[in-house]
Amino acid sequence: MYIGLVYNSEFHQIIINHTSIEFYENLKPQVARAPLKLTFSKEQEGRLVLVKEEVNPNGTSPMIKEESVKLSEHLITQLLKNTNDEPISNQFVEGSIGGSVNYRS
Questions:
Q1: How many structural domains comprise the chain?
Q2: Hey, what long-range contacts does 14-20 have (CB within 8 A, 24 or more apart)?
Q3: What is the pLDDT of residues 44-61, one digit of tens each?
């Protein structure tokens, strides 16, 4: 079974990672604190979001650049129900992104 989006009469597969991902800052060595984690608000619950790394004076920080309207509960259930537990070679990012205190620019 495949889940995807039809756009311009073409099928584009959507791959859902069964494991959640945490995004953290990558800090330069001179920043004397632990990397902060990207948090999501209650309003963002059930939305698709585009997360991008942004360069700042301390290193890089994950930022939400775009978000969709809230998805229906039925659609969210279908997406999560059809996840794939089998590893697909390098299709998924690791469970934690960022968190480096050795970031060099």
A1: 1
A2: 14/79, 15/84, 15/88, 15/91, 15/92, 16/79, 16/80, 16/82, 16/83, 16/84, 17/83, 17/92, 17/93, 18/83, 18/84, 18/85, 19/92, 19/95, 20/95
A3: 999 999 999 999 999 999
For the record, the structure tokens of 61 come out as 């920080």
Range of the domain at 47: 4-97
Residues 35 and 22: their CA atoms lie apart, in Å, by 12
In a domain, 102, yes or no: no
Residue in the block written with tokens 């700042």: 56
What's the pTM?
0.73
